């Protein structure tokens, strides 16, 4: 009877050892996946920071383009104004 109990105890210990090895392997697998996710999160964070910087630079470029457009529009209006009055003056001077 003692031998049967020891055999049962040995089987239980071996089963527990097998389960512990499986749990260790699963724990290692999980930690590997967590590390990969951490790297992906860092990559996404870096991409988000870069995208934010690009948007800020784009906004500055748009502001400069609006200013240039406003300046060129003012210049064109002044040019056409002077041209119109020059033509009117030449027409008046000719008559």
UniProtKB/TrEMBL annotation:
Alphabetized UniProt keyword annotations: Coiled coil, Membrane, Protein transport, Transmembrane, Transmembrane helix, Transport
Signal peptide annotation: none
Domain of life: Eukaryota
GO BP field: protein transport; retrograde vesicle-mediated transport, Golgi to endoplasmic reticulum
Membrane topology category: Single-pass type IV membrane protein
Main location: membrane
Subcellular localization: Membrane
GO cellular component, one term: SNARE complex
TM segment ranges: 75-93
Family, as annotated: Belongs to the syntaxin family.
Name under which the protein is recorded: t-SNARE coiled-coil homology domain-containing protein
Organism of this sequence: Aegilops tauschii subsp. strangulata (Goatgrass)
Lineage summary: Eukaryota, Viridiplantae, Streptophyta, Embryophyta, Tracheophyta
